[in-house]
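User: Hi! I'm working on a homework problem where we have to compare a predicted structure to a textbook description. Could you give me the structure for the chain below?
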Amino acid sequence: MENMKTKKKAGSFGNVFYVGLLSFFGGISQDMFVPILPLYLANVLGFDKTFIGISEGLVTSGASIFRFIAGFLSDTLGKKKPIIFLAYSLSLVARPLLALTTAATGILGLRFLDGIGKGMKDSPKDALIADSTEEGNRGKGFGIARALDTLGSVVGPLLLFGLLFLLRDNPRKYHLILFFTAVPLLATLAILVFKVKEVPVTAGDLGVPRAAFALPRRFYVFLGIVLLFSIGNSSDAFLILRAQNLGVTLLAIPLVYALFNFVYAAASVPLGSLSDRIGREKVILLGWLAYAASYFGFALAGAGWQIWLLFAFYGLYYATTEGVAKAFIADMVGSNHRGRAYGIYNTAIGVVSLPASIIAGMLWDQVNPAAPFYFGAALALCAFIALVLFVLCTPKGRRVFA
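Assistant: Happy to help. Predicted structure tokens:
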């Protein structure tokens, strides 16, 4: 259990702000190319949807082992910043180089390298946020970090829109945009070096050493439910392809994506704070209902204007789950084991993302474009029921972290 010294040390949101700020610039880079990458692969390089599903799933699944390694190392070394620095540096190399290759193996290799970077930064960064907050306001802390991260994901698509407009007659517009994604990552590295501070684990936090996978049983039960949900949670690249399928233009797609991220960012702090008051599980349940409703909407949509409403509502799903689920894990696990807990959590979701995206691609190609969304909505409802049972079987007032 965290001692009082650690709680006093973790009470300020200053470090959380700077972690969120480096994520802000990382989000600008990420979400400048996320909306156009599947279009680039499909429309310019001519790859089919199954290949896109494999490449998107491989980004996280192929690099998932690095999520656990990074989390375990952050616990063992007691340092998180060097791991995060290396992670962002890999993305700085991989993203611009996508503009220089057309071969399938080269694209998969670069996406794999970017995935390693994403995998390496996630667990130590989540642990750094958790260690910089107290249990009573941890949901708000993760909400602040997610809001800043997601604001970058609003600015990124808006910058993409501006670049697409300026380069609309340039046949190499995709390539130039991919090069430009490196610029925000330089700001991210500068903030990490000069502003973000380590939060060392004190001797009182260390307790009895545990084996790598020796974490509270409730953590693994919750993880199993999340994985059930994740099987139907394919890459968001399919949402972008669905938007194009229903007539949303290339120039409008970044604006749709920006709207989604704006709702996500605006709702992250209030919904994170709500989880501090009413419980993490209840807010996650609301998020999975929002997901199911959104995916049924994407399946049933028949016009481009409906996509705008669906993407906005889809942002509520992210705001109620991304930060809140990680705050819930921090509640379950002591500070000296959070790196590996986030490593296991992020790794497991990454592994599942590959079959999830492959299934979605096959359903799209072999059934129809609506099929992946029916599948995802159905599994979300199954996970909702499982989480309700999880909550009902948990005695009230039980301490959740070891």
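For your comparison, note the following. The chain is about 80% helix and 0% strand. Residues 1-11, 203-209, 397-402 have pLDDT under 50 and may be disordered. Good luck with the assignment!
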